Amino acid sequence: MGDIRRRRAVALGITAGLVAPLTLALGTAPAQAASCTTQTGPYQKQVEKFLGLPVDGKQSSSDCKAIQAFQTKHGITPNAGYAGPVTWGVMDLMNKQKAVGNKPNKDGKCPVNKGRIACVNLTLQLSWIQDGEKLVYGPVPVRTGRNGYETRTGLKKIYWRNIDHVSSIYNVPMPYAQFFDGGQAFHSVGLSMWNPPGSHGCVNMTKTTAKKYWSLLKKGDDVFVYGRKPGT
């Protein structure tokens, strides 16, 4: 029993050393493949077009397999190949992100008078780094807070960085964590950026993006979050 207590004490000590205030992190992992449905979904034609399938508005075996593969890749559940609102919502968001091109701040909503700043557009689930009007990096898809755990909007500053952070609430790794608002942070995750419903408040990124943000930003740099994530 003494050894068990000592091991627990050591584990708690390690965790305490990695704690940031109210760390908010991840969502759910992708689900296993379900059996394929024969039902035609309400967004059948839109989904078929997005996936480059014959657009006839009728569910087929090949349609289902292609839709199911997309759902499984991005952690959409249930992943039965049904062309429903959640699946189409992800695809529609992808289309809107692509349409932005290399002008993410075309509407001028992210401040251009702050020097280097990381911008987060919740509506389009995009982030980028700019310096004045110059685009430094991005835009890249991100995964922000779900309904009830929204990523808070406004002008903030990076106040703490921890390259090997572990969440004290969810007990999950948060590599390349850069905290900017009460425990909400940029950090990498091993999930699709289009995995619904979203994070517990943090701005999730791919490892490549998180490493780039780590190299380009520093403590004290500005972060501006605006818009509203679909479904929140």
Automatic annotation (TrEMBL):
<dbReference type="GO" id="GO:0018104">
    <property type="term" value="P:peptidoglycan-protein cross-linking"/>
</dbReference>
<dbReference type="InterPro" id="IPR050979">
    <property type="entry name" value="LD-transpeptidase"/>
</dbReference>
<keyword id="KW-0133">Cell shape</keyword>
<protein>
    <submittedName>
        <fullName>L,D-transpeptidase family protein</fullName>
    </submittedName>
</protein>
<dbReference type="GO" id="GO:0008360">
    <property type="term" value="P:regulation of cell shape"/>
</dbReference>
<dbReference type="InterPro" id="IPR038063">
    <property type="entry name" value="Transpep_catalytic_dom"/>
</dbReference>
<dbReference type="Pfam" id="PF03734">
    <property type="entry name" value="YkuD"/>
</dbReference>
<keyword id="KW-0961">Cell wall biogenesis/degradation</keyword>
<dbReference type="InterPro" id="IPR006311">
    <property type="entry name" value="TAT_signal"/>
</dbReference>
<dbReference type="InterPro" id="IPR005490">
    <property type="entry name" value="LD_TPept_cat_dom"/>
</dbReference>
<feature type="active site" description="Proton donor/acceptor">
    <location>
        <position position="187"/>
    </location>
</feature>
<keyword id="KW-0573">Peptidoglycan synthesis</keyword>
<keyword id="KW-0732">Signal</keyword>
<dbReference type="GO" id="GO:0071555">
    <property type="term" value="P:cell wall organization"/>
</dbReference>
<feature type="active site" description="Nucleophile">
    <location>
        <position position="202"/>
    </location>
</feature>
<comment type="pathway">
    <text>Cell wall biogenesis; peptidoglycan biosynthesis.</text>
</comment>
<feature type="signal peptide">
    <location>
        <begin position="1"/>
        <end position="33"/>
    </location>
</feature>
<keyword id="KW-0808">Transferase</keyword>
<dbReference type="GO" id="GO:0071972">
    <property type="term" value="F:peptidoglycan L,D-transpeptidase activity"/>
</dbReference>
<dbReference type="GO" id="GO:0005576">
    <property type="term" value="C:extracellular region"/>
</dbReference>
<dbReference type="GO" id="GO:0016740">
    <property type="term" value="F:transferase activity"/>
</dbReference>
<feature type="domain" description="L,D-TPase catalytic">
    <location>
        <begin position="115"/>
        <end position="226"/>
    </location>
</feature>
<dbReference type="InterPro" id="IPR036365">
    <property type="entry name" value="PGBD-like_sf"/>
</dbReference>
